[in-house]
Amino acid sequence: MLIRELARRAGVSERLLRYYEGTGLIHSERRANGYREYDDRTVETVRRIRTLLASGLPTRVIRQILPCTFDGTALRPCPGVLTSLRDRLTVLDRRAAELETARHLLRRTITATEAGQDPALRD
Questions:
Q1: Strands 36-37 and 74-75
Q2: Neighbours of 67 (CB within 10 A)
Q3: How far is it, in rounded angstroms, from Cα 99 to Cα 97?
Q4: How is 26-73 classified by DSSP, letter by letter?
Q5: Which residues share a beta bridge with 69?
Q6: Are 35 and 21 in contact (CB under 8 A)?
Q7: What is the average pLDDT across 33-51?
Q8: CB under 8 Å to 10, separation ≥6 — which residues?
Q9: What is the pTM of this model?
């Protein structure tokens, strides 16, 4: 199928598909006229990529684990996959903690501002 059809079936833009191809997440064959031609399985691959991206994984990690995926986002125990997933979870946990701290400080600032107090003086 051509890129336009893949984009329609996968629910993404042609530009995004070109990006995925450029980063090695999907592959195409080239017709004699230079058009990209994709295999029918690429639709499911793109859906898996989208799901993995939504779970917070960067494309470099997705490229590593994509060959290990099947049935949605289920993974086979390929070497390094669990380590990559755990490392990413650690990063996300750290970011979540930083966001929670920022939320707490912002709430404190809002409360102090509403009360006409200096937020630095409140605990």
A1: unpaired
A2: 11
A3: 5
A4: S--EE-TTS-EE--TTHHHHHHHHHHHHHTT--HHHHHHHGGGEETTT
A5: 75
A6: no
A7: 93
A8: 17, 42, 43, 46, 47, 50
A9: 0.72
Q: Cβ of 16: how many Cβ atoms within 10 Å?
A: 14
- Other beta carbons less than 10 A from residue 21's beta carbon: 16
The pLDDT > 70 percentage for the chain reads 92
Residue 42 CA to residue 48 CA, distance in Å, equals 10
CB 121 within 8 A of CB 113: no
- How does DSSP classify residue 94? H
Judge whether 68 and 76 are in contact, CB under 8 Å.
yes
* Contacts with 90 (C-beta within 8 Å, 6 or more apart), sequence order: none
- 8-state DSSP, 2: B
pLDDT tens digits, residue range 61-102? 899 888 888 766 677 778 888 888 899 899 999 999 999 999
